[in-house]
Amino acid sequence: MKSRTLGAKGPRVSAIGLGCMGMSQSYGGAFDPEESLATIRRALELGVNFLDTADVYGPYVNEELVGRAIQGRRDEVFLASKCGLVPGASAPDQRNGSPEYIRTACDASLRRLGVSTIDLYYLHRVDPKTPIEESVGAMAALVRAGKVRFLGLSEVSPATLRRAQAVHPITAVQSEYSLWTRDPEQGILATCRELGVGFVPFSPLGRGFLSGNVRSLDPLPPTDFRRGLPRFQGENLARNLELVDRLAEVAQQKGCTPAQLALGWVLSRGPDVVPIPGTKRRRYLEENAAAVDLVLSPSDLAAIENAVPPSEVAGARYSAERMATVNR
């Protein structure tokens, strides 16, 4: 497995990580802890050492799952978790970045994960009720206490990142980024590079859509949250399937899968970009991990861009209510 550096002075991690959220929430279906544990352990065998979880995933059970998977293998793992979204609460009251809440959440995450230190600790969303300086100040205290090694932010604006960086060095920003979600190119990616902050794309496969495995909502479990996302609805879905079919044609010519091509494009955005595709199955993990060896020429990249131009993506990422919580 190739490696990359998170930010100008950050740690070395595997060039591709593993997002663990879908193992216990959002995509419906039965929770299969044994396959999920096997997937995490297979990731470590492949050298995928950058594991991403959060207290709100499940809630709680995701961190417990990751903790079980890495027991006895802590030194093989770069472990990321998050705080700032209150499990069980609903938007817009879910966000809590108060210092007291952050301290309590971190201690609880450490217990569930069964570790003494979290390598990378993110503020999951910016709390509009708490100045970012106060939130990051509390997180910086966790670094001084040895409970956290590096700090991160998720779905922040360039202005918020600058304010946070003035309080304590930020190692990574995590935001949604893929061929059909190009928001980071509107400012935050450039700001990360200016400040020496690494960039961690989540959902680099567009919630699995870019893999070509989702053709309709019918096979999705009733609790799959994609059923409520605008891009998966009606005419939007039909128009977006046309883009996926174009991407599949390019992948066929390249001799790889559409998922590998989509991940290869994200990896090509720069050596400071470390995507964390999520999966709960070993076969998809292995497919994703192989994308790091894909070599894309300028003509390949042009063909990919032509297949999925951002202007042709139909529908918003989220509902209006949820969109109000990102890029803040």
Structure description:
- With 328 residues, the protein is of the alpha/beta class.
- The protein contains 11 helices and 9 strands.
- The chain has helices at 33-45, 61-70, 99-113, 132-144, 158-165, 188-195, 234-254, 258-267, 282-289, 298-307, 320-323; strands at residues 3-5, 12-14, 18-19, 50-52, 78-83, 118-123, 148-154, 172-176, 198-202.
- It has a 7-stranded parallel beta sheet.
- α1 runs parallel beside α9.
- The longest helix is centred in the C-terminal third of the chain and has 21 residues, at 234-254.
- It is globular and about 50 Å long.
- The relative contact order is 0.15.
- The mean pLDDT is 96.
What key phrases describe this protein's structure?
328 residues, alpha/beta, seven-stranded parallel sheet, two-stranded antiparallel sheet, 12% strand
Topology (SSEs and partners):
Layout: E1 3-5, E2 12-14, E3 18-19, H1 33-45, E4 50-52, H2 61-70, E5 78-83, H3 99-113, E6 118-123, H4 132-144, E7 148-154, H5 158-165, E8 172-176, H6 188-195, E9 198-202, H7 234-254, H8 258-267, H9 282-289, H10 298-307, H11 320-323
Helix pairs in contact: 1-2, 1-9, 3-4, 5-6, 7-8, 7-10
